[in-house]
Amino acid sequence: MATVNIRRDVKDTFYRYKMPRLLSKVEGKGNGIKTVIPNMSDISRSLSRPPTYPTKYFGFELGAQVNCDGKNDRYIVNGAHDAARLQQILDGFIQRYVLCPSCQNPETDLIITKTDEIIMDCKACGKRNPADNRHKLATFITRNPPPPPGKGGKKGKHAGTNTPPGSAVDEDGNPIEPVEGDEDDDDDDELTRRLNAEAAELPAESAIAAEEWSEDTSAEAVARRMQELAVKTTVLGDDDDDDDEGNKYEAFGQWLDENTKATDDDIYKKAEELGVANKHKAVQVLVQCIFDETIVQQIPKRTKLLQRFGTSEKHQRAILGGIERLVGLEYKDKLMTKVPIILKKIYDADLVEEEVILKWGEKPSKRYVDRDTSKAVKKAAETFLNWLRNAAEEETDEEDD
Question: In b/e form, how buried is each residue of 186-197, taking b as 16+ CB within 10 angstroms?
Answer without folding.
Answer: eeeeebbebbbb
